[in-house]
Specification:
Layout (H helix, E strand, L loop, with lengths): L1 E2 L4 E7 L8 E5 L6 E6 L4 H5 L7 E5 L2 E2 L5 H9 L6 E7 L4 E9 L5 E9 L46 H18 L6 H17 L6 H13 L14 E5 L5 H16 L7 E5 L20 E4 L2
Parallel strand pairs: 10-11, 11-12
Antiparallel strand pairs: 1-2, 2-7, 3-4, 5-6, 5-7, 8-9
Helix pairs in contact: 3-4
Length: 302
Amino acid sequence: MDDSSDGRITVNIAKRKLGGVGFLTNKRSICPYLAVSHVVKGGVAHETGLIQAGDVILEVNGKSLESVPYHKALEILDKVPTGEVMVIKIRAKAGFHAYLETAFDDKGTVKTVRKTRASSPLKTTPTNMNGEPLNCTSSRCLGSLMLPYGGDAPPKRPYGVPREPEEVIVQAKDFLQQYYGAMKLEDSPAHQQRFAEVMKEIEKNGTYDLTEKELIYGCRMAWRNASRCIGRIQWNKLQVFDARHMNTPSEMYEAIVKHIKYGTNKGNLRSTITGLSSKEAWPQRLPRLEYAVDSLRWLQTS
């Protein structure tokens, strides 16, 4: 009997006239097809303790069974003469690793015993949706980052620095495909017309404005795709208020009050988000406003 580092062990069992090898077999759905279904109590396999239920039989007396049909493998096992010592190579069931150890029994006699332990989980490198590796560390996980265009996470864009028009075009095209695709209108005349309008606006201003319906869709998709948010199951119930047209302090105050009243709902909270215009559209005398209301969502589009 020997021990193998790959989880395969070889055991010697003498086939008896009564009870045979001391175990029953069944057919696996994949090769190798022959597996131990039950170890008979009092049989030779039970006495040695070297074979266990679930073991996969790989070889008998030097004959490989790894690609042999089930009935042929049974014939090879049955044709071994009674009294002959069978050399059987086996491995433990999936998820476990078998190995042999030499130990002393209660009487001080040296004995070979079988040990079975759970296999170590495979160490895999985390990848993004395109199969590209992520630069995760023991203290930082990038698995939940959305990188729809592949590669590593881009460097953080400094505040106030607009995206390059080329990047805006790529993301605008992708967003409009998702938006019209959700309505099963991808490549429709409406989609093509809206895309042409967006391209003209980007060419003129370097960016573009979402319609109210596009803003609502974008907010809901952003929440749905936030993989670390435990509350995103409610994404399709998110209430979006478009307040981008409000520029004066009094108008913004009204929008904030509306947001709070609707969201708090007298204690029965509702998922709510309010979108203001970008700060470039605000009067110079108006300071930048940022509000974070407990359990509510406040959005400043930029």
